């Protein structure tokens, strides 16, 4: 059996049909019915295929016809073909193909094993279809009171084979009350004796309690007295199509309401298929009724200004914002009455791989009444003059704009202040006269940045090597960047120079901490990569011994290295994400060891930690204090002239007297010393060392120690500093003692926990899916695998519809190019409020765990994980 659409394209093929054509389960789907048979004239031309289909359709609906079936790998043979229509909107057809009984046993291709490709006998065909196909069969015999519902018929309504009795009462209880008169077991007036075909749509009750749409086709058999004696037919689940039809009707209704009441005009120009459409509301925008304008591209072209459409409608859409598929603008249309109509337009374009315009879909909405021009008149550059002036005035950087000759055309207020010149005075002057640069160190004249940019066409990134020559022997430090201004044809029309006095630059506390954190990550990257490679060596070596030599002695070391790498990545993620402003009571030793592990990774410097046994706890934002200690360690390592040396870190309790370490009050503190034997700090730099942007390093930003001081003070602490050139430097951090025990999150080592149930696992990494599937199988769970959120939703809906939702769902947080776990969970909650979901992620962060648990997830599985970790989280969530 084949299920065909109105054009003869195959939508479904049952296993018997696939066996006839020697095709896989899905290879027939989508093919044209005419391609499956041998005709006197063979062609792939769509027109001829359609003509052949229409001939077969006309003949096979009246009576069975004989056609020559062409298998994929053997000779053609004769079959009997009968077509039955199912439904009218749109029509679909059930094709029933049978082989002559005499050839059943002999027509298998030569050399083909009968066990692999044998075609079931005719008498077995019905039972095979009834048990395995997606089409449900039923037989209502009112004369003998015998009823049959196939297993597929029952599955369609959410029942197992033994859960629904084969009785006429079952049929009556499942039919929707409003549809009972339209069902095939009712026929109205007395009919003539014989068989009468039917094709109907009605609703039947699902095991879950809701109704599903069924498409039913078959025969009604009437006795001599015109009474209905028997109904035989097939059912096909029509729910998806009905939902689509209802959704389409609602969409059309919404569009009509927007057009009727909001004057929203919509159009669709499909150049690839030559299908064009304008909504009635669009035609009314320019004064026409629906039937007065043809649905052709010329209709829009005639409404647009002639000068804009001179090159044709395709060129018109191609030249608009070519870098993006969608754009918005104000458009002038020509009204039927000869006046102009201004509209807001939103346009979306589809292009082929060759960048050819294939389709344009858009909307147009009239500009509010009383406004006959675009809402804001724009300059050729695109920005309104008033907006540009206001924006430049608010900037805290100086902005200087020139023409293509390098002469000043615009200066904002901040630029006037820094240059001590008015815009009117410098307008038309060359930049070298207005912005004279000299090198900071030797005061030698610098190159004109605008001349360089206009000549090369390349931008100059942020530069801090120069100062402005004020002409009186004094110099103003300046940081600046410059880039060319290009027109639509990529021609240089000028340059923009942005500059600022670094002594006026300031950051908020949060900006300072964030900027320093990213700078530190750059310093740490190489060392962390070194440590990761060491751990990977242990892991790979153990796996290699187990795989190549069958030696498992190093597997335990590999597992420990995996856990160490997981811990290192967790620390790195914690540092990169920054703090949460939530403070916890912690042991100083824990923070110091974690900080050294990351900051000293890959370094040749020896770091020694000495912590007194009685050191008290401190209450801090752990991530921010990690940042403080790591900054100090990085500075100490960079202070080693030879790249080798020693760093000593000590922690102890101290009691400070009032005024001993201003501005701290008297009391009990924890003092942390970070001491090195590097080059030391020059005396003239000691007072500036904590100033933002002060640095003595060639590639430094001057944010590190400013950040350290800011964080420590926000925790009620202070920093002490002693240094001797050539001997080394000591930073001492003071934090108030917490006088509370450490907050312990006790975690027992996971053990294997076996369970039962069906699990849906979603991850876009195939290797992770396969590995987790093996774990789940070993733990005793059944499972299904999905590669993205869309597949997971389809799986879940399928089992939910038959009243057997998954016991738990494990979803990866991030899916490349698809729906991730967070978004999929929201859809699952709408589908089943009782869904039990677990999020899986490589982000091992307590704040993220709390965030997803608050969202409704019942568990958080951190990657990488072991079998025991997986078993434990499932036991916790399922409670069994």
Structure characterization notes:
Strand 15 (340-351) and strand 16 form a beta hairpin. The strands form eight sheets. A six-stranded antiparallel sheet has the order 2-1-6-5-4-3. The radius of gyration is 39 Å and the shape is extended. The chain contains 25 helices and 36 strands. Helices cover 33% and strands 26% of the residues. The longest helix is centred in the middle third of the chain and has 40 residues, at 509-548.
Write a concise keyword list for the protein shown above.
880 residues; alpha+beta; six-stranded antiparallel sheet; five-stranded antiparallel sheet; 25 helices; 36 strands; 33% helix; 26% strand; extended
Summarize the structure.
The protein is of the alpha+beta class and 880 residues long.
Strand runs, count: 36
Note the overall shape: extended
Number of helices: 25
How would you sum up the major sheet?
A: 6 strands, antiparallel
The order of strands across the largest sheet is 2-1-6-5-4-3
Mean of pLDDT: 79
The radius of gyration over CA amounts to: 39 Å
The stretches of 5 or more residues where confidence is low (pLDDT under 50) are 102-125, 372-382, 515-527, 575-580, 745-753
Give the N-to-C terminal Cα separation.
45 Å
Structural class: alpha+beta
The proportion of strand residues reads 25-35%
Helix fraction by DSSP (H/I, runs of at least 4): 25-40%
